[in-house]
Design a protein that fits this description.
Blueprint lengths: L1 H17 L8 H5 L21 H26 L3 H15 L7 H15 L1 H16 L5 H19 L2 H10 L13 H40 L7 H15 L2 H11 L3
Length: 262
């Protein structure tokens, strides 16, 4: 609803600019060569010192929002299931032997929407417990951040190995935590990333095995037939594509990825 309202507002603003009467434009601009009937909009940016605590608070909030927007790609990659999904999909493409099919745009798009799918329960909890109460003015900003942090931390802890957590706790020289709430967030994030990389490479190695067997069989067959000048990759590629399609490979890979986060 908010997005639709913004779109309508911008459309109305654009329509008002385009159909504004010629008299709305200053005479100096018309003399400078502006097209009659289409006024040139002006932009006025002024920076003035804050006159009260409220303006300072608003400026800090705007700065925080801009900082979060700049860090949004890193947060999407490091705090969600995106890393594991995109690595596994890329390894599937490499195992088949066609490193450019599907294209990178398709792989990243599929990984992005699978990330939204797997993170939907977490997003729902964050929206219900943190975003909506904050938008209604029921809780303060600090409380909203604390409530939003809880479900994300719980998700990362479920997917993180204790060995990786212990590694970063020791590297940070933190005391041994008695419960998960005692682990700092800056320790959980790198431990979660390392665990995701390990899990993704394990899943990718299992996907490589059947395609490797096909390559070995084709190579042995060509050598036994004396056709050593013929590339085994060229011969095995149709068989790998056929095998992957017959076993409904994308369905199996996506199901395994989604179930690995349950």
């Amino acid at each position: 609803m908010k997005t639709a309202f913004l779109i309508v507002a911008f459309a109305a603003l654009a329509a008002g600019i385009l159909v504004a009467p010629a008299g709305a434009a200053p005479a100096g601009r018309a003399a400078a060569g502006a097209v009659p009937g289409i006024p040139v909009p002006g932009v006025d940016l002024r920076i003035s010192p804050a006159t009260g605590p409220q303006q300072v608070s608003t400026s800090l909030q705007i700065l925080m929002v801009l900082t979060l927007l700049a860090l949004a790609p890193a947060l999407l990659i490091m705090l969600t299931s995106f890393t594991r999904i995109v690595i596994v999909l890329s390894l599937v493409r490499s195992a088949i032997g066609v490193p450019t099919i599907p294209p990178n745009q398709v792989v990243i798009g599929m990984a992005l929407f699978l990330t939204f799918f797997t993170m939907a329960p977490v997003i729902t909890v964050v929206n219900r417990n943190a975003v909506e109460p904050y938008m209604r003015g029921e809780i303060a900003q600090a409380d909203a951040i604390r409530r939003a942090e809880g479900p994300i931390r719980a998700f990362m802890l479920r997917q993180t190995r204790e060995r990786d957590l212990a590694l970063f706790v020791s590297l940070a020289k933190e005391a041994r935590p008695a419960k998960p709430d005692d682990i700092p967030t800056y320790v959980i994030v790198p431990a979660f990333a390392v665990s995701e990389l390990r899990t993704a490479f394990l899943m990718g190695s299992l996907i490589f095995i059947p395609f490797l067997i096909i390559d070995m069989v084709i190579s042995s067959t060509l050598m036994s037939m004396g056709m050593m000048m013929l590339s085994p990759v060229l011969i095995s590629l149709p068989f790998k594509l056929l095998l992957f399609a017959m076993v409904d490979g994308w369905h199996l890979v996506v199901r395994a990825l989604v179930q690995s986060f349950i």
